[in-house]
Amino acid sequence: MSRSDSPMIHLESTVLGSPDPQAAVRFYARLLSWEIRNDERDWCTLRNPGGGPGLSFQLEDDFVRPVWPEQPGRQQMMMHLDLRVEDLQKAAAHAKECGAQRADHQPQDDVVVFLDPDGHPFCLFEK
Fold it and tell me: Burial of 19 by CB count in 10 Å (0-12 exposed, 13-18 middle, 19+ buried)?
């Protein structure tokens, strides 16, 4: 199928499961300086001010906190966010102030891995 024959499909948002979407949306709103668009008990969204895809959070009543790096028999991460920053040290300090936890395992010297309050990993890196 050629591109001209394909239907137009656009990525609107990445959705993370959370035991508390309202807490998750507030964490990421502060971390990213994005505006909260939806703020409901079971569904919250952030608007990307750059016009790109947003970030959403869906209630998972049976949420199991992921572990990273993976461990046999434990809930693995299903995805992680890569966040490009201008100043890695400043961004890392900001992430910690927002409530992120620096991961014990840091696999690269030029990337800092954090865990959000729900345990989802995210990576900070410079250009």
Answer: middle
